[in-house]
Each structure stands twice: as C-alpha cells, then as structure tokens.
Amino acid sequence: MSFSRVKPGGWGTKDDLTSSQLNQLDTNASKAVDGAVGGTYEPGAPIDVDGDGGGDGYGMRVENLQVDNLNATNLDVSSQQVNTGEEIKWNDGLLPQLNARTLTYIQPKMRISDINGISDQWDFVDGYWRQTDTSSAGFLLIPVTILPARGTIKTVRVKVDATLISRGGFDLTVPTIKLWQDDGSTSWSQVGNAGDDSVSLVEYETRHNIEIPGLNETVNPEFNAYYVSVAGEFGNDAVNDALAVVMVALDVEVTQIGP
Hints:
Blueprint: H1 19-31, E1 97-106, E2 122-125, E3 128-131, E4 140-144, E5 152-161, E6 176-182, E7 189-195, H2 201-204, E8 207-212, E9 217-218, E10 225-231, E11 244-256
Antiparallel strand pairs: 1-11, 2-3, 3-11, 4-10, 5-8, 5-9, 5-11, 6-7, 6-10
C-alpha cells in the first residue's frame, strides 16, 4: 500500500512533533524510491500508476527502461525499437501484439503441375496462366507460399482477364475458385469457394476479381499448407486462350509481428 500521512490534518503553529511521528517519517523516507542515485527495491505488492499525466495521455514516462519480467495489459511503446536480451511473451506467442490490421499477400504465379493431367489445360503465357483448353473447366492449382506466421485469412481474391479473345455469347459456365487446407492427412479440407459473379458478357469480358469473402481461417504454418484452385470457363461460348489468371492474393488479418 502507499504511504499514509503521518498527521492527516497537518501541523499548525506550535504543534508537537512526536518521536513516533518522526520515526514514521523516517521509515517512509527509507522505503521511498531514490530518484537521485537509484537503488534496488522489492515491493511487497504491485505498484499501480494511474491517470493521464495531467492530460498528456500517460501516467508515467520513461526515456530508457530495462524490464526483466513484464506483465502488461495495454502497452504503448512510442520508441521505434525495443531491445531485449530475453524473449518477450505476449499472450500465447513470443511476438509483440499489434492492433488488428489486414494485409494483402500476393502469391507467386506458380502451380502444382499435372494433377491427373487436367492442369495441362492451362499454360503459362506472357506472365499469366492462360486457359488453352475449354473442353472442360480444367484445374489450376496454385500453392499459397507467402503468409504471415500468425494471422487469420479473411479473403481470397483471384484477378482474371477475360478480354484476350471476344466470345460470341455468354452461354458458358463461369470460373470458380476454392481455398484448400492441407494438414498432412490423406485428404484436403475446403475452406471456402466462390464463383465469378458476372451476369453479362459485357461484365465478364473485363479484368475483374473473383473473391471468397468472410473467411476466418487461422494460419498455422507449423501444421497447415494452403492452395488456391481455379476452375476455368467451359460451355458453348467458351473460347480457348480467352481467359487468364492474372493475380492471386490473400487478405490476412494480423495481430502479431511475424519473424
């Protein structure tokens, strides 16, 4: 507990200063923090500092601080660098926690080749994956290789370019995308899927995004791998070499700094 006043009402003129009061003042002074030369202290209870510093927004300001054991509910470090010789533990991880923010991770345009031969319907042309055979939807499988060590996948976004060759009509099945999780077992789990939401040929024959929104997939790179699959167009008005996958990106909410 904090020091209590030795004489709460204060001393008046000619009031006695007793030996017990002096002894209490001496005891309190010996327990106070020495702001001149410092010292070593072992408080018997936590020291709570509250208030906003007279409107400055903080109750305590420290220019240089070394902490051996830190338990902080809310910690605002305005310095651009935190040096620690030991691991700092935040929640259940060993990485500083941040306010939640969403970052976009664009994936390299690689693919897993020859899944039962059906990925042969896609070729890498001019920097994009182009659907060269529309006799069926085909299956383009792109590994997700760039993700934060900790985070939550919120959206998968595949940008397609359907402007390469004009189609005679819109009698076709539009592309669909899926996000898969591989946990090392014999089968993969589908996390989410979405189809192209174009409702007309004019809308379809543009560069546009196909999105899987509303996901809440926690990234655990120690156990799970992820893949995005793209099934292309097919049908009476589908045209070979008219559709290309331009970009694959994942929006990930992060609350911790990655390694």
